[in-house]
Amino acid sequence: MEKNLTKQFISTTETLRTKMDASEYKNYILGLIVYKYLSDKLLLEVVEQSGEELTDYSTKDKQTTLYKKLLEDNEIKEDLLQELLNELSYVIEPNYLFNVLAEQARTETLKLDDLREALINISNSNPFFFGLFDDVDLSSRKLGNDEEQQLLIISDILIKLNEIDMMNHDIKSIGLAFDSLIDKFSLDSGKRVEDFFTPISISGILARIVTMGHTNKQEFSIYDPVMGSGSLLLKVGNSIHPSTRVKYYGQELNATTFNLARMNFIMHGIDMKQAVLNNGDTLNKDWPITEPKTFDSVVMNPPYSAKWSADKSFLSDSRFSEFDKLAPKSKADFAFLLHGLYHLKDNGTMAIILPHGVLFRGAAEGDIRKKLLEDGNIEAVIGMPSNLFYGTSIPTTIIVLKKNRLEKDVLFIDASREFEKEKLQNKLTKENVDKIIDTYREKKIIDRYSYIASFDEIKGNDYNLNIPRYVDTFEEVAPLDIKAVSNELKEINAKKQELNQKMSAMIHSLDDRYLVDSNVKAIIELLNK
């Protein structure tokens, strides 16, 4: 069902594809889809609050008429608006409903200022929505050189989106369709899109690891300090039992991506009261700094080997002070890891995706890694296949961390060779993912796949966690049978000589007039050698 909805969403992008890059036109498509969803959802709630039957108000036009009629009754109006705020946390005026604006676009009476005002109004209606539609730039010259051209493009998108009946789909299908659309934009843009989207198979592994043993809790908290589009947070939340009250905490540096994350939460039906999302710089300024500051699970796919200030003042920062060393300026990988570990509950689980360099690089990184191992914080190291992420072929590793472990051993899993190759990138199959999870859960030792290294063994390797040191993936090649190869070569040469003789006989049988051709003469000379 979501596949059909995804196709409908994608069909609305045709007008913009020739005008701008996917990383830019996604802001218009995703923003307007979200506004339509909020508008359509409000109309359904109006019918619900009115006590009328939905079968009698099955179209947007009928629902809009009912909404206007109820608001005209002063005895009903105040109560209705309050109920809408209680249930939805927002209200949209009838004139700014998506279907009303789309109808104006169809009849060529729409004014861009009206759509602009509609987006501003809903952005100001709830703190969660503040600035949500800032990237829907209706005045951009990429839409057209003047307002008339810009209006034509936007009108076309509104009309196409208005034909989609989102409310005919359940929230899971809507969320999956939105995920697929983000996925497509990731593929089309060809940029460092891993910054805002973690592939579903990878996020699934992290989600299953950090929720292991926690699926039936009454409450469960998730934290992603570099949340991107929020896909990783949502994946973890979906791995928890439906009866569990999930609380999401996320931070994102890029304002556009932060807006995308909030949109993603809306389209997955997450109650705004369940999500605390922040637009900020995770490393330079700690967040959150008020309770709760620690969480049941921490997940992270940070930008790999990013630059950060590494200012000496951070040595007194409670996130890093215990380690007496800072991640280098040119590689913030361990800074992200230590930030996440600091915000992990004592009985929680953290999983972070990083490049392999963190496993063996020395200097300050080596000292940080040594202390993590001495404290028993590193539970598992999982080597992933290369080319899993859009925009980069770099191989990555998943590091699983915990606090207050009694053991200091480390489980190593080398899953780098187990994947399905596709045209543009490698893909993990369900079997690949299940094998990783089963090996982690049961702490299995599998020949050429997994191994549990003791602390003393790791210490003997100077705290180097490079996976090939512990998981031997070398496959012995069968010895070469010289005699068999020699006999095969003799057969090939004999066959070659036989074919040459046949060809020579055929050429000599040709009529004399063909033998004067220089090419034929050359072939004869070659065969006679």
Automatic annotation (TrEMBL):
Span of domain DNA methylase adenine-specific: 173-476
Gene3D superfamilies in UniProt: 1.20.1260.30, Vaccinia Virus protein VP39
Catalytic function, reaction form: a 2'-deoxyadenosine in DNA + S-adenosyl-L-methionine = an N(6)-methyl-2'-deoxyadenosine in DNA + S-adenosyl-L-homocysteine + H(+)
PROSITE patterns: N6_MTASE
Keywords: Coiled coil, Methyltransferase, Restriction system, S-adenosyl-L-methionine, Transferase
Family in the record: Belongs to the N(4)/N(6)-methyltransferase family.
The protein's name in its UniProt record: site-specific DNA-methyltransferase (adenine-specific)
Taxonomic lineage from the root: Bacteria, Bacillati, Bacillota, Bacilli, Lactobacillales
